[in-house]
TrEMBL record:
Name of a matching Pfam family: MalM
GO cellular component assignments: periplasmic space
Keywords: Signal
UniProt feature coiled coil, ranges: none
Signal sequence coordinates: 1-21
Gene Ontology BP term (one): carbohydrate transport
Organism: Vibrio xiamenensis
InterPro entries (UniProt xref): MalM (IPR010794)
Stated name of the protein: Maltose operon protein
Length: 275
């Protein structure tokens, strides 16, 4: 009896592993958890600069950056509205294609990268396909680009894996025309952490915003090498070369360059040539 129980238990375990192995969305979610986030702070995101009027198709994929939004880890795309834009009409579509879709969340930030607003999937409309477009989540917003110039598109763990049923076009036509309901199956999409988007930006009024500096910009502008730091590296490089310790000299040179110490390369070359 014990052998039978163990055999059944083993079978259930293998079935569970097999189910996980054949579920691409579960695999993708599991893989995502193993990837380190790109940045500790929002202002360190790589922001894609938008023009005043633009329409683009893009994809959030496993090649996208990974961020932490509250407790949720997600692939994301980050955008900055044009500093010349005032009021902007924004249309965002998350396409239902190849059996899956991202249930989108959008966060808007001010010039100091403070969160001002979050849009959730329930704020979107589900639009049905026609001759030119897919079934999709769609939202239209008016945004003040001066107050909230930055926005990020991502999803949350609670949405991934859920099934979304969309009425079949033939069923919709029958409802509208009063004809008998056809025997058709409504398409079902799985909410995933990767998917395709379409973004349209239209500037309605213009303004002039000073572009905020990201943390990397601020770090570069804040670097002012003190004279004693410069002297330290110059002397240390010269002493390392004089002692025939070239690896140490090169290491010091790399450190000096990383700190923005000007003239370190010339000191190194001069020290080598004078030997």
């Amino acid at each position: 009896m014990r052998r039978v129980f163990l055999a059944l238990l083993s079978g259930f375990s293998l079935a569970g592993c097999s189910s996980l192995a054949t579920d691409p969305y579960a695999q993708s979610a599991q893989y995502l958890q193993s990837i380190p986030v790109c940045c500790e702070h929002i202002n360190e995101f790589k922001w894609s600069q938008l023009t005043e009027n633009e329409k683009l198709n893009f994809e959030i994929s496993e090649a996208s950056s990974v961020g932490l939004f509250g407790r949720d880890k997600s692939y994301f795309s980050a955008f900055e509205l044009s500093p010349k834009s005032g009021t902007v009409a924004l249309i965002l579509r998350s396409k239902m294609a190849e059996g899956h879709v991202i249930a989108p969340y959008v966060q808007f930030f001010d010039q100091k990268f403070q969160l001002q607003k979050e849009i959730a999937p329930q704020d979107f409309l589900i639009k049905h396909s026609d001759a030119l477009t897919y079934n999709r989540f769609e939202i239209q917003l008016d945004i003040d680009a001066q107050n909230t110039p930055y926005f990020v598109i991502f999803t949350r763990d609670q949405s991934v894996g859920k099934k979304i049923s969309v009425p079949h076009p033939a069923r919709l036509r029958a409802q509208q025309s009063g004809e008998p309901m056809p025997m058709v199956t409504d398409p079902i999409y799985v909410s995933a952490n990767t998917g395709q988007f379409e973004l349209t930006v239209t500037t309605r009024t213009f303004s002039n915003r000073a572009v905020a500096k990201t943390s990397s910009d601020q770090a570069q502008s804040a670097i002012k090498v003190q004279p004693d730091t410069q002297s330290y590296y110059f002397n240390a490089i010269e002493q390392a070369v004089a002692a025939n310790n070239l690896p140490k000299a090169l290491s010091l040179l790399d450190e000096a360059k990383a700190l923005g110490v000007e003239g370190a390369q010339e000191v190194f070359i001069k020290a080598v040539n004078s030997k």
